[in-house]
């Protein structure tokens, strides 16, 4: 471990904090601030760090994995929002079924749930 690294513990998990890693992340953030998208900012930060010998051995070997991992985080966040939306829609469909079982009309259900009347009619209890 280099002299610029330290280990700390968070929630019982050892974390390696490297000033080189902090510099790498700082470069990527700066490139995003000037308008580069995430992939562009990461690519430019990787290239800068290799040139400036910041994590250069690691980045020369693993730059594509680093780029894929860090840009995939955005995709995970998008996926999470989609899953949450799907869960809300599923809850709404369950509510429609309950309302139909209670004998409420399709018009009332459509007004309350804000779903199109055609969608309400397609749902069977």
Major sheet, described briefly? 2 strands, antiparallel
Rg, rounded, reads 25 Å
| Total beta-strand segments | 2
Mean pLDDT: 82
In helices, the fraction of residues equals over 70%
Please state how the strands of the largest beta sheet are arranged side by side.
1-2
Order of helices and strands: EEHHHHH
**How many distinct folded domains?**
1
Q: What is the first-to-last residue Cα distance?
A: 63 Å
Structural class: mainly alpha
Number of separate helices: 5
Strand percent estimate: 5-15%
Model regions low in confidence, pLDDT < 50 over at least 5 residues: 1-16
Q: Which of globular, elongated, flat, extended, rod-shaped describes the shape?
A: rod-shaped
Explain the overall architecture.
With 125 residues, this protein is mainly α. The chain has one domain. Helix content is 71%, strand content 10%. It contains five helices and two strands, in the order E-E-H-H-H-H-H. It has a two-stranded antiparallel sheet. The longest helix is centred in the middle third of the chain and has 46 residues. It is rod-shaped, with a radius of gyration of 25 Å. The termini are far apart.
Question: What does this entry show, briefly?
Answer:
With 125 residues, this protein is mostly helical. The chain has 5 helices and 2 strands.
Observed structural traits:
disordered N terminus, 5 helices, 125 residues
Fold blueprint:
Elements: E1 5-10, E2 13-18, H1 19-33, H2 38-51, H3 56-101, H4 106-113, H5 117-122
Antiparallel strand pairs: 1-2
Helix pairs in contact: 1-2, 2-3
């Amino acid at each position: 471990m280099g002299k610029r690294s330290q280990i700390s513990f968070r929630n019982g998990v050892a974390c390696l904090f490297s000033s080189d890693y902090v510099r790498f992340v700082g470069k990527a953030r700066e490139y995003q601030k000037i308008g580069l998208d995430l992939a562009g900012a990461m690519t430019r930060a990787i290239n800068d760090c290799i040139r400036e010998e910041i994590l250069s051995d690691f980045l020369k070997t693993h730059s594509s994995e680093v780029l894929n991992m860090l840009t995939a985080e955005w995709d995970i966040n998008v996926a999470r929002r989609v899953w949450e939306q799907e869960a809300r829609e599923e809850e709404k469909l369950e509510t429609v079924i309950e309302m139909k079982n209670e004998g409420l009309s399709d018009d009332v259900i459509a007004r309350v749930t804000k779903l199109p009347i055609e969608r309400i009619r397609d749902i069977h209890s």
